[in-house]
Amino acid sequence: MQGVVERIPSALEAVTAADGAAAGPSVGPSAGLNVAVRKAVLDEFRTRAQFVGRLAEIDALLWTTADHGGELVGGTLLDHLRHLRLLRITEPEESDRFVVTEGEGEKLEVLRPAYVDEVTGKVALAGHLRRVSARDSAEGGEA
Predict the structure, then answer these.
(1) Is the four-CA dihedral 58, 64, 65, 71 of positive or negative sign?
(2) What is the tens place of the pLDDT at every residue in 57-86?
(3) CA end-to-end distance (rounded Å), the chain
(4) Pairwise CA distance, residues 113 & 60, whole Å
(5) Is the Cβ–Cβ distance between 35 and 27 less than 8 Å?
(6) Is 118 helix (H, G, I), strand (E, B) or coil?
(7) Domain extents in the chain
(8) Alpha carbon 21 to chain centroid distance?
């Protein structure tokens, strides 16, 4: 919300400048404010989506390492995910948020977690699953 509030003055200036340059009828202050608020909200969500996407990519990369980035880095990143309301999904049962990339068998193994933006309800980054046989899953364990 803070980002939206910070963006409103510049969006209002842009609307006012565009209105002054237009040859047509003038947009009233109320309509101009509505346009400015709408633009500020859209810009903020676009910026948030880009940031959330990058953070999910970084976390996914760390998650694929043997120690998941270590306690300090992994814990700090998890705190950031929680603060942004970005949910990391590592359970293959939620397969609608994953893409099956390879393999054969009846069980699924997570290669990369999926991330869901709880603010919008949208998948920020799809996870990757691999099909494995039950025997391979029991022998090798999960990543």
Answers:
(1) positive
(2) 999 999 988 887 788 888 888 998 999 999
(3) 38
(4) 6
(5) yes
(6) coil
(7) 2-140
(8) 37
| Per-residue pLDDT tens digits for 86-119 | 999 999 988 789 999 888 888 999 999 999 999 9
Beta-carbon contacts of 86 under 8 Å, excluding residues fewer than 6 positions away, are 52, 55, 56, 80, 115, 116, 117, 118, 124
Among residues 86, 80, 96, 93, the alpha carbon closest in space to that of 120 is found at 86
Nearest 5°: the CA angle 95, 130, 64 is 95
Distances (CA, A) of 36 to 2, 9, 46, 59, 97: 15, 8, 15, 34, 35
* Single pTM value for the model: 0.67
Question: Phi and psi of 19, rounded to 5°?
Answer: -70, -40
Answer yes or no: are the C-beta atoms of 97 and 129 closer than 8 Å.
Answer: no
Residue tagged 């200036």 (tokens): 13
